[in-house]
């Protein structure tokens, strides 16, 4: 959907009878939530705001329940379990925890622990809420572990196309022929899917970087996270600078344009029908190399032919592989065995 700030949406029926809502697919957080009536503070969404009073399956969660105990920042109000979640960009949702029925196509899943957000603020424009599919026990994937074995996969369709991508839960989501990379666990951030990244390449040439630039430290800092809820890939400043300079050196023949927003390396391609650009690659631990097509790293930022190198420096040591870089690639998570796979299919 051409709304929001670069997120991918999935259509889900909430409640009984199901009310269709657009929800952001977020592999970087756990909470499943939608905006709810009565709204004390709500942003604009494309569907009518969900009204729990009109759902026959909505059940509030009591303060003393084990589900409430599993929520970070939980509280109590009139005997009901309260939740609040703050996101890295300053967005937040606050409200009541409930058990509710969710409908995906013809599949009905009952008693999903879901936040009913009465105070919500942030960059979720258009969406009714978030489908958190992170690595924690309260995420949609965590709640379904008994049925799906922690397995799911997605293919995020490229921006600007009318086709749709896919989001699949269960062992059948794990394809034969994928390139598998071990997931790295960080006890201090169980929601995040960390991967071992060893290097970056431009035009088949590996960029010289410090050996430990992408390492996850014993104190839980640094590391590399796969996140569908972040658009642009972020890299530690030193790694980004070397990577960007390597790309600029191999695109010196292309006319430059001034930077746009968080992008500092942009090109004026208005006079071109097609251009040849070097490939960009991620080198993972244990061997796999993910080489990206040009649309996954050169991004149009206006209608007049300006394209930007779609990476940015991270304000912290944490690296994030965002959804622009994941576009069009089948990505599969095998949570039970601790692997993420790339390919073999595209969308």
Automatic annotation (TrEMBL):
Organism: Brassica campestris
All residue ranges annotated as the Peptidase A1 domain in the record: 8-343
Keyword Cytoplasm (UniProt): no
GO BP terms in the entry: proteolysis
Family: Belongs to the peptidase A1 family.
Coiled-coil stretches: none
Catalytic residues, chain numbering: 26, 227
Tree of life domain: Eukaryota
A Pfam cross-reference name: TAXi_C
Keywords in alphabetical order: Aspartyl protease, DNA-binding, Hydrolase, Protease, Signal
Transmembrane portions of the chain: none
InterPro entries: Aspartic_peptidase_A1, PEPTIDASE_A1, Peptidase_aspartic_dom_sf, TAXi_C, TAXi_N
GO MF annotation list: aspartic-type endopeptidase activity; DNA binding
Name this protein carries in UniProt: Peptidase A1 domain-containing protein
